[in-house]
Amino acid sequence: MLITIRDESATGHVTNELTLDVLTESITVRELIRSRVYEEVQDHNLARRQAAGQFRGLVQPSATEQQLNGPKTIREIDWKKQFDIACDAFARNGFFILIDDKQAESLDETVVLKHDTKVSFVKLTPMVGG
Length: 130
Prior knowledge:
By secondary structure, this protein is of the alpha+beta class. Helix content is 34%, strand content 26%. It has helices at residues 29-52, 63-69, 79-91; strands at 2-8, 14-21, 26-28, 95-99, 102-103, 110-112, 118-123. The strands form 2 sheets. Strands 2-1-7-4-5 form a 5-stranded mixed beta sheet, covered by helices on one side. Helix 1 packs antiparallel against helix 3. The chain is elongated, with a radius of gyration of 18 Å. The two termini are 30 Å apart.
């Protein structure tokens, strides 16, 4: 099942939106966070590996440009570490999660997702880690 996840500020401003493929309708908040973090980190790390390869755009940079710009170093991220940071932030009220406008209370709370379920991660403080 595909669900849409939004990141929102405390004022309701949407800062990011992504779709997440979940395997079951019944999921804990912890599993929801795990799925989201895993997907984001996998996307980041894939982009990192692709960027390390040769640029395959329509117009190739000249040899001089490539030498001046140098290789871009994007560090690989450990999804498990990011997941632990996210769970800790949730527990410390660094962000909260609204599922169909109902606030999730704990990591172990089980929610039932539908095809039109709305999930919002509302960030209260910047989360830094990794």
